[in-house]
Structures are given as structure tokens and as C-alpha cells.
């Protein structure tokens, strides 16, 4: 198939490279010249395991190219729209400016029989609105909504071997055409018996936000239990293991700690609340307000813990923050809990030094006032070490070796990944969220 991918960020760049890997002829299009230049030279503009290898393989086959020229979409028959839908400034709703602009700009380059496929996460009702625009401007073009469920850090694997494929399509012949085309695009995963669900636009749009709302709810549920563990002396990791053995509950996404961040979960549950409000169905998702509040409270709790171990005031104290990315194996700092805690401590007057294996440059770009440095510079002389993003190398830290470098042996485990007994035996004060 001849495919265009509009928007080559965390989602689109991976999608473009994976589609080429599946044997399609792909043009990736973005308005960001820097990103396009890097991608065109076979380099990933962000950290994503497996992406650089895929980009160089695909470029060598000649099946993958990148451009800022949207007119080149005219050479394709299937157009994936992967532009951002961030939270609007000063509100909860999704900002659809980029989606609308991409659709409008794409219109003149569409040909009869083309299928435009929305992949961005959008408020329910967006696809129907865009389909109506298409029906007027390009009646021989069909719209499908094919939400994406990839996780950063596993994006390549998730795209090549998805858990499921969801197609939201129009009724009648147009919808049947879209299904045929999407089946051809995803022939390889479908051959692996990937479940494929064909539905209408609103269901497809809702599947995506429902999935993220459920994941956010699971995380905030366990973090609410962590609050109770803190109040009672119980241990949230043991609690999660115990309830997780029940297949109906499952252990995945029950890791208590600093909570969820990133470019998806936080903004998606907020946009869902905003959209439900517009639809007069706000009561259906008011619980998400609590999910959000529990999540944000964990960050405050970490700041309080740091203050407590440092004797009641962090002003002037040297604090090492390990991790800036919103999760390990990513350089993404969008709504990063780790970075939020670091900034709050800095604002309280602490001398914060942040380090991260991959996200340092992005952290510095959004907070130029924050001291983002090497691991060594962060920990040398620190009076407290805060592990806030659970990169493997931080999980494996040796408490004896680290103890030689710090000014005081206080460790705060924001992700419940260290062995408290081992750290205490090495003379550290060990504090965590939801366990003692
Ligand atoms: N990041 C993920 O893991 C992930 C997973 C599933 C779904 N999503 C959804 O996918 C969408 C994109 O997310 P992302 O994380 O890739 O965002 P991103 O900010 O990394 O990428 C968006 C890209 O779109 C480009 N862009 C904006 N307007 C454009 C236009 N008119 N024409 C061409 N390019 C344009 C931007 O320059 C940017 O490179 C969002 O709706 C998000 O919720 C993201
Ligand atoms: O038990 C857990 C699991 C995750 N997290 C945190 O939750 C956030 C999100 O993690 P994850 O879902 O792995 O990352 P994303 O890459 O943001 O992926 C989510 O958001 C994407 C964009 O919508 C979806 O496609 C994915 O299916 C969905 O998992 C991160 O801050 C994690 O640290 C926890 O605190 N505890």
C-alpha cells in the first residue's frame, strides 16, 4: 500500500517506520523541519528503543521517506493522521487545532478512493464532524478512526504486534472500503490472529479514552491504597501482589508510587471529562476527577517526605533527583511526575540536581532554570537521593557504593523498586510511598 503519515512525533514516526517495515511504501510528513531532517537522515528525533534500527533498515529499502511538503501525500492512498491533541491552555479539553489544520491542509491532495485514517486521540464526536467535512469537500474519500494503543518505550513492538486493532468506520459501502484497505495495511498483524474489531466512529473514539481511563483508574486505585498503607503501617507492594494474584484483578498497572504522567493518561482523562460535560453526561465520569486528584496528591506527598527527612525545611539543601522522564525507556517529559517534584523542591529553595539517562535535554528545554546534570554530579554530596523514574540502572544501584558519595544517607524511593532491607542494612534512611 502507498501510505502517508501526517505528524511524525512519538506516535507518527514509529507508525511510519513500522508501516515501511511491514512492506508498505511510506511518506512521513511533519511541519517540524528539525524532526523531518533527522528522520530523513535515518535518525530518531526522540529516544524509543528499536526505532533507530527500523529507520535505517527502512531508509535502505527506499520504502520510507520524510518531508515537510504535504503535497507529497498525493502519492499515497491511505493517510494516517497522527498529529498532537494536547490539553488546551487553561482548561481540560483537547486542543483540536492540529487535527483540524492537518485535515484542511490534506484535502486538496486527496484522490478518489483514498482513505483518511485518524489515529490521534480525540474527543468522541470528532470523527463524525470530520466525516461531514470530507463528505462536502471530497465525497469520494472515506474516513476511518483507528485509535492507537502503543506504549512509549515499547512502541515498535506494540505497533508491529498490537493487542488488538479497532476500526471505526462509516456504514455502507464507504465503511466496507475502509475495512478492506485497513485489512490490507495490517495484513501482517492480522495474519498473527490479532483481534480486529470493526465498529462505528463514536465507539472507536470511546474505546481509546475508556482504555486510558481504566489504566489511570487502576494506578490511582493502588495509589489510594498506598495512602491507607501510609496511615496504617501496611505495605502497598505486598497488597498489590496479593490482590493481583486474582486473575479478575491482575497485577499489571498496580505499581504504586509517584503516579502517572506523560503525553496521554493525564490529558486524556481530562479531555474525557471536558467532553462528557459538553455532552451533558459529566456525571458518568466525575470519578475521573478523583483519579486525577489522587494522582497529583502523590507528587505533593513526595515533596513532604523529602522535607521530613531533611528535618522540616529543604531550603538550601542538596537533593539528587534520579529521573526526569515520565517513565523509564523514554525521553518524554510531558507531565512528568519526576520533573514536577524536582521543580516543586527547587521552588521551595532546595539545591536540586536532576539526572536522567535520556531525558536530560528535554527536561532542560522545558525548565532551563533547573540544574540538569550527570549522575555523578547529581549524587556527589547530596543530602537526599530521590528515585523518581525507575530506570534499570537506578533499580540496580549499590547502596554501599552510593553511600560513599553522598553527604547523608537518605533515599526516597518514589517507585517502590528498591529493597528496603538492603538499603537500611547499608545505613540508609529508606522512605517510600505506601510502604515503611
Ligand atoms: N505518544 C504516544 O504514546 C501515543 C500513543 C497513542 C496515541 N497517541 C495520540 O497520538 C497523537 C500524537 O501524539 P504524539 O505523542 O505523537 O505527539 P507529538 O507531539 O510527539 O507529535 C505530534 C506531531 O505532529 C506534528 N504536527 C502538528 N501539526 C501538524 C500538521 N498540520 N501537519 C503535519 N504535522 C503536524 C508536530 O510537529 C509533531 O511532530 C495524540 O493525539 C496522542 O494522544 C499518542
Ligand atoms: O503500575 C503502573 C503503571 C504505570 N504507571 C505510570 O503511568 C504512566 C503511563 O505509563 P504507560 O501507560 O506505560 O505509558 P504511556 O506510553 O503513556 O502509554 C499509555 O498511553 C498511551 C497513549 O494514549 C496508550 O497508547 C497506552 O496504551 C497507555 O498505556 C507512567 O507515568 C508510569 O510511570 C504507574 O505509576 N504504575
TrEMBL record:
Binding site for NAD(+): 30, 35, 85, 121, 152, 267, 334
EC numbers on record: 1.1.1.22
Residue ranges of every copy of the UDP-glucose/GDP-mannose dehydrogenase C-terminal domain listed in the record: 320-420
Keyword Aminoacyl-tRNA synthetase: no
SMART domains linked to this entry: UDPG_MGDP_dh_C
Enzyme class: oxidoreductase
Pfam assignment, any one: UDPG_MGDP_dh_N
UniProt xrefs under InterPro entries: 6-PGluconate_DH-like_C_sf (IPR008927), NAD(P)-bd_dom_sf (IPR036291), UDP-Glc/GDP-Man (IPR017476), UDP-Glc/GDP-Man_DH_C (IPR014027), UDP-Glc/GDP-Man_DH_C_sf (IPR036220), UDP-Glc/GDP-Man_DH_dimer (IPR014026), UDP-Glc/GDP-Man_DH_N (IPR001732), UDPglc_DH_bac (IPR028357)
Keyword field: NAD, Oxidoreductase
GO molecular function: NAD binding; UDP-glucose 6-dehydrogenase activity
Pathway membership: Nucleotide-sugar biosynthesis; UDP-alpha-D-glucuronate biosynthesis; UDP-alpha-D-glucuronate from UDP-alpha-D-glucose: step 1/1
Family the UniProt entry places it in: Belongs to the UDP-glucose/GDP-mannose dehydrogenase family.
Name the record gives this protein: UDP-glucose 6-dehydrogenase
Organism field: Luteimicrobium subarcticum
Lineage: Bacteria, Bacillati, Actinomycetota, Actinomycetes, Micrococcales
Amino acid at each position: 500500500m502507498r501510505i502517508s503519515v501526517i505528524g511524525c512525533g512519538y506516535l507518527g514516526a514509529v507508525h511510519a517506520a513500522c508501516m515501511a517495515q511491514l512492506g508498505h511504501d511510506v511518506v512521513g510528513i511533519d511541519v517540524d523541519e528539525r524532526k523531518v531532517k533527522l528522520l530523513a537522515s535515518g535518525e530518531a528525533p526522540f529516544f524509543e528503543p528499536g526505532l533507530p534500527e527500523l529507520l535505517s533498515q527502512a531508509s535502505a529499502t527506499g520504502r520510507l521517506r520524510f518531508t515537510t511538503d504535504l503535497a507529497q501525500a498525493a502519492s499515497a492512498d491511505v493517510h494516517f493522521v497522527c498529529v498532537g491533541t494536547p490539553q488546551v491552555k487553561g482548561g481540560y479539553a483537547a486542543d483540536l487545532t492540529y487535527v483540524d489544520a492537518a485535515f484542511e491542509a490534506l484535502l486538496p491532495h486527496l484522490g478518489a478512493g483514498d482513505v483518511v485514517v485518524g489515529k490521534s486521540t480525540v474527543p468522541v464526536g470528532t470523527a463524525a464532524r470530520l466525516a461531514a467535512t470530507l463528505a462536502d469537500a471530497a465525497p469520494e474519500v472515506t474516513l476511518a478512526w483507528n485509535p492507537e494503543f502503543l506504549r512509549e518505550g515499547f512502541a515498535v513492538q506494540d505497533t508491529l504486534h498490537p493487542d488488538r486493532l479497532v476500526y471505526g468506520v462509516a456504514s455502507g459501502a464507504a465503511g466496507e472500503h475502509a475495512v478492506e484497505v485497513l485489512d490490507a495495511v495490517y495484513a501482517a498483524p492480522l495474519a498473527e490472529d490479532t483481534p480486529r474489531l470493526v465498529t462505528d466512529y463514536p465507539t472507536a473514539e470511546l474505546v481509546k479514552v475508556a482504555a486510558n481511563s481504566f489504566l489511570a483508574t487502576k494506578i490511582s486505585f493502588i495509589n489510594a491504597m498506598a495512602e491507607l498503607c501510609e496511615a496504617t503501617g501496611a505495605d502497598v507492594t505486598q497488597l498489590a501482589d496479593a490482590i493481583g494474584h486474582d486473575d479478575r484483578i491482575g497485577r499489571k498497572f498496580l505499581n504504586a508510587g509517584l503516579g502517572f504522567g506523560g503525553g496521554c493518561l493525564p490529558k486524556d482523562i481530562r479531555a474525557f471529562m471536558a467532553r462528557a460535560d459538553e455532552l451533558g453526561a459529566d456525571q458518568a465520569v466525575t470519578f475521573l476527577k478523583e483519579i486525577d486528584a489522587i494522582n497529583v496528591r502523590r507528587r505533593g506527598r513526595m515533596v513532604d517526605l523529602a522535607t521530613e527527612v531533611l528535618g522540616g525545611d529543604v531550603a538550601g539543601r542538596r537533593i539528587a533527583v534520579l529521573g526526569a522522564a515520565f517513565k523509564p525507556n523514554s525521553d518524554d517529559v510531558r507531565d512528568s511526575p519526576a520533573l514536577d517534584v524536582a521543580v516543586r523542591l527547587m521552588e521551595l529553595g532546595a539545591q536540586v540536581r536532576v539526572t536522567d539517562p535520556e531525558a536530560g535535554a528535554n527536561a532542560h528545554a522545558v525548565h532551563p532554570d533547573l540544574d540538569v546534570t550527570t549522575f555523578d554530579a547529581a549524587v556527589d554530596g547530596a543530602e537526599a537521593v530521590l528515585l523518581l523514574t525507575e530506570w534499570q540502572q537506578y533499580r540496580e544501584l549499590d547502596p554501599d557504593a552510593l553511600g560513599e558519595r553522598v553527604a547523608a544517607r537518605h533515599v526516597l524511593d518514589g517507585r517502590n523498586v528498591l529493597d528496603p532491607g538492603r538499603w537500611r542494612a547499608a545505613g540508609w534512611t529508606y522512605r517510600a510511598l505506601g510502604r515503611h
